[in-house]
Design goal:
This protein is an alpha+beta fold. The protein has a domain at 113-366: 4-Layer Sandwich (Penicillin V Acylase, Chain A). The protein contains twelve helices and 14 strands. The chain has helices at residues 14-46, 59-73, 75-88, 92-99, 101-107, 192-202, 206-214, 262-265, 270-273, 276-290, 297-304, 369-372; strands spanning 6-9, 117-121, 127-135, 142-147, 154-159, 166-169, 174-179, 222-227, 232-238, 241-245, 252-255, 328-337, 342-347, 358-362. A hairpin with a 4-residue loop joins β8 and β9. The two termini are 13 Å apart.
C-alpha cells in the first residue's frame, strides 16, 4: 500500500470543489508550481536551435489564453480552477498554467524522452492500465484523489493543482492518458487535462465520453483511452482534428506516444524526435500477441516490465544525474477495472510492483445515487 496522499475532494459547486482542493493541498500546489515554473524556462532554453525559440515562454499569457478557451467550452472548469487558486492563496494564472502544463511545454518545444505506455484488453470484462512517466523532480508532486459533487463521482491520480488525469468514475467510465506530439501543437485550446476532468466528472457512458473527447477544442495532442466494462477505444486529439482508434481483432489496444490514425500521423512530431515510442509499441505488441488469459494487475505489470536490455524502456528509470527536463522515470503504474469502478495504483514502475504494493481506489457514489438507480460501487 502506498503512503501517497489521498485527497477526498467535495463540494456542491465547481468553486467549492476547487476551494476544497486548494485548502487541502495549498502548500503542495505551491511547491509543484515552483518546479514547473523552472521547467518551462529550462525546456525553452534547451529547445533553441530545434523546434523552439530558446526564449522563455510568457507562461501567464499562455495560461490565460487556455483558460479563455476553456471558459468558452466548459465554464465550470474555470470556476473550479478559480476556487483552487482562492483556496491555495495563489494567483489564478498559476493554477491555469499547471492545468495547461502540456500545452505550455508543447509551445516551448519540450522534448519527451520517455512518457507513457498503455495496454487495454476488451472482452466480456474489459480491463487495462498504464505506466505514467514524467520528470523525476516531480515524483513528489502527485496524489491520489476521490471527487464528489459533479454529475458523477470519480477516483484517480493527478498532479498537485491539476483537476484530474487518470481515473474511473461511478458510471464505470475509465480514462487512461498518453501524450502525443503534432507539428501544430500550441497553447491556444482547452488543456487536455481539463478535457479528461470533464469526461470523468460528467460522462455516463462510453458513447458520451467519446463524443465529449472528439468535440473538445484542444490544441496540444494527446490520446485518451476510454475503457468501460464492455468497450474501449483510444481517442487521438490534436489541433488538426480527432480520430477514434478501436481495438485490434484480438481485443487489444496498445498505445505509446505516436499517432496511429494515418491522417493525424502525417503531422507526427513526437515519433520523429524520439523514435523510441515505436520501439515500445513494437515490443508491447509482441508481448500481447503471446499473452493468453485476462489482463489483471499481475499480467499487466509483467507485460509492462521492460527495460533497455529488453529492447525498449517501457519501465523508465531516471539517471542519477542530469538537468531538469532530462530525468524521466515511471512515477506510477495503474490498473483499471471499470466493472468494479476501481483503480489500482502502484507508486513507481511496474518492475517494483507486487500484490502488496497496490492501493485500491473506488469511484465514490453520489449520496442519492441509489435512489436514482445508479449502480453502487463495491467496497475495497
Amino acid at each position: 500500500m502506498s503512503g501517497r496522499t489521498l485527497l477526498r475532494i467535495t463540494g456542491d459547486t465547481p468553486r467549492r470543489r476547487g476551494e476544497d482542493r486548494g485548502r487541502r493541498a495549498g502548500d503542495a500546489i505551491a511547491r509543484a508550481w515552483r518546479v514547473y515554473d523552472e521547467l518551462f524556462t529550462t525546456v525553452a532554453a534547451g529547445s533553441a536551435g530545434s523546434a523552439g525559440s530558446g526564449r522563455a515562454p510568457d507562461v501567464r499569457a499562455l495560461a490565460l489564453r487556455t483558460a479563455d478557451a476553456t471558459r468558452a467550452w466548459a465554464p465550470e472548469l474555470v470556476e473550479e480552477m478559480e476556487g483552487v487558486a482562492e483556496g491555495a492563496g495563489l494567483p489564478f494564472w498559476t493554477i491555469a498554467a499547471l492545468n495547461a502544463r502540456t500545452e505550455i511545454l508543447a509551445e516551448a518545444g519540450a522534448p519527451r524522452a520517455g512518457e507513457c505506455s498503455t495496454l487495454v484488453l476488451t472482452g466480456p470484462r474489459s480491463t487495462g492500465g498504464q505506466c505514467w512517466d514524467w520528470h523525476e523532480e516531480l515524483a513528489g508532486a502527485w496524489h491520489l484523489q476521490t471527487v464528489t459533487g459533479d454529475v458523477h463521482g470519480f477516483a484517480g491520480i493527478t498532479e498537485h493543482g491539476i483537476l484530474a488525469k487518470i481515473g474511473v468514475n461511478e458510471a464505470g467510465v475509465g480514462v487512461l492518458f498518453n501524450i502525443l506530439g503534432h507539428t501544430d501543437d500550441a497553447a491556444t485550446g482547452v488543456p487536455v487535462h481539463l478535457v479528461a476532468r470533464q469526461v470523468l466528472g460528467t460522462a455516463g457512458s462510453f458513447a458520451e465520453a467519446v463524443g465529449m473527447l472528439t468535440g473538445a477544442p484542444v490544441s496540444a495532442s494527446t490520446v485518451i483511452t476510454v475503457v468501460t466494462a464492455e468497450r474501449a477505444a483510444s481517442v487521438e486529439l490534436a489541433l488538426a482534428g480527432s480520430a477514434v482508434v478501436v481495438p485490434d481483432d484480438r481485443g487489444w489496444l496498445t498505445r505509446t506516444n505516436h499517432f496511429l490514425d494515418p491522417s493525424l500521423a502525417a503531422g507526427e512530431l513526437r515519433g520523429r524526435r524520439e523514435p523510441e515510442t515505436y520501439d515500445r509499441h513494437r515490443l508491447l505488441g509482441r508481448r500481447v500477441r503471446a499473452h493468453t488469459g485476462p489482463l489483471g494487475p499481475d499480467a499487466l505489470v509483467r507485460l509492462l516490465s521492460a527495460h533497455r536490455e529488453d529492447g525498449a524502456e517501457v519501465c523508465c528509470h531516471a539517471p542519477a544525474e542530469g538537468a531538469l527536463g532530462s530525468r524521466w522515470a515511471t512515477l506510477a503504474t495503474l490498473a483499471v477495472d471499470p466493472a468494479e469502478r476501481r483503480l489500482l495504483v502502484h507508486d513507481g514502475g511496474p518492475c517494483t510492483a507486487d500484490p502488496s504494493t497496490w492501493t485500491p481506489l473506488t469511484a465514490p457514489t453520489r449520496p442519492n445515487a441509489a435512489s436514482a438507480g445508479a449502480p453502487k460501487a463495491p467496497a475495497h
